[in-house]
């Protein structure tokens, strides 16, 4: 009786574990009745018919990553490249994935490998190296359509590595170096061009300002010469009037002024090593005395005119003073 009781307890546990099934999250179980698929168990607890139903396949419903092995592929222009990829899949129908294909992961890996050779082989090397997105999109379209009957959704396919031959890699490195040097030369030329333009603009502005300065200076010089000519004309007119009135001192003043100016120019001459002084210094002294007398006469005339203005209106103005003497001209 003891052994029989133990047998019954063990049998009860076996029946319990065979009847009660707990499906974890992210998984689905297929149920077979006498070897035939009947239904799919979702995550949670479920009860089976003992000795009649059993779990067929335990399917992973989460997204999975499969690695496509590296392989050598010949491109359209007969270049050998090494290519590998990764594919992201997700089982959408547990029954189709379990019963429509044997070894689902191996089948998808081989499908990706063959299509990868087909797509890369139809492109040139430059297209393979620079159009990875195009390769990924073409592979995704083909493989997703092929795996749809298996109840599998291919979400993404990514080219993981592309390794061209060594000689192609060296040629690409030389091409990149030449391109960098070309860009550097173009950039340097652009900089020199901008610098030349800036220098030309500066020279232009400097020339314009210099021309403006010369024009302003010429205008000022002309105005100064005009003023000097006017002053000279007025002085000449006054001397002429004095001569017409018989005033000899005006002539002496004019001659003495020219004499002094000529002597000053002679003394300022940098090439002259010897300055000749006139022998008759009395002429120069007389000229200077004549100048002093002329200045005194001018003061007396001004004082006389002021006295006449202050005196009675009927008073006759005094006669102009006669010249006291003249200075003999100098040789």
Structure commentary:
The chain contains eight helices and eight strands; from the N terminus they run H-E-E-E-E-E-E-E-H-H-H-H-E-H-H-H. It is rod-shaped, with a radius of gyration of 62 Å. Helix 3 packs across helix 5 and helix 7 crosses helix 8. A three-stranded antiparallel β-sheet has the order 3-2-5. A three-stranded antiparallel β-sheet has the order 6-7-8. Strands 1-4 form a two-stranded antiparallel sheet. A hairpin with a 2-residue loop joins strand 2 and strand 3. The chain has 331 residues and is α+β, with helices and mostly antiparallel strands. 59% of the residues lie in helices and 19% in strands.
Short description:
The chain has about 325 residues and is α+β, with helices and mostly antiparallel strands. It contains 8 helices and 8 strands; from the N terminus they run αβββββββααααβααα.
Write the SSE topology:
Elements: H1 2-19, E1 20-23, E2 27-33, E3 36-41, E4 44-47, E5 53-60, E6 64-74, E7 80-91, H2 94-99, H3 104-121, H4 125-130, H5 132-147, E8 152-163, H6 166-244, H7 248-268, H8 281-310
